[in-house]
Amino acid sequence: MNDSDSARKDFLALRDNACSAQLATLAKDTTPEASYAPCILFEGDYYFFLSQLASHTANLMRNPEVGLMLIEDESEASNQFARRRISLQGSAQFVERDSDIFKRVIKQFHQRFGKVMKMIEPLPDFQLFCVCVTSGRFVRGFGQAYQLTGERLDDLHLADPRQ
């Protein structure tokens, strides 16, 4: 396996096994707010089932632009300065409860997160959001940063450190 194939394997493992993402949203006064939420990757988009009581939900409803980060667990990282991570930028859209995509994605949430979904799915303050990502970067370690390209942002191109 060459280095490119190895990097792609590491990228896909991190992306496909992530159960949550860190979110960067903008508050009403435009200060940045960091948070996290469980997520599902479904057909190339990231989905979040968020409570309206959370500030990141109000932030997304006001300004749909969002940054996401999927990051290697601290306990699995060989070096805390070089944790594998995927940083993504995109835009969030509200998903109606009566839509077909809502039903399909909520089924995935039930499969991944189990019993808690039976409790929170019927709550009216929980809303499903789809984040369509438009750009991203995968950092595999020191000197190993890749721009993400392609229709589903799953093609890796070693970043030029001079840019």
Task: Provide keyphrases for this structure.
Pnp Oxidase, Chain A; about 160 residues; nine-stranded antiparallel beta sheet; alpha+beta; single chain; 4 helices
Question: What is the topology?
Answer:
Layout lengths: L2 H15 L2 E7 L5 E7 L1 E3 L2 E7 L3 H8 L2 E7 L13 E11 L4 H14 L1 H6 L5 E16 L2 E6 L5 E4 L5
**How many strand units?**
9
- How many domain units? 1
Count the DSSP helices: 4
Instruction: Give the strand content.
Output: 35-45%
Please name the fourth-level CATH homologous superfamily: Electron Transport, Fmn-binding Protein, Chain A
Q: What average pLDDT do the residues reach?
A: 94
What is the CATH-assigned architecture?
Answer: Roll
Distance between the termini: 28 Å
Tell me roughly what share of residues is in helical segments. 25-40%
Rg value = 16 Å
CATH names the topology as Pnp Oxidase, Chain A
Order of helices and strands: HEEEEHEEHHEEE
Category by helix and strand content: alpha+beta
The general outline is globular
What's the quaternary structure here?
A: single chain
CATH C-level name: Mainly Beta
Largest sheet: 9 strands, antiparallel
Low-confidence stretches are: none
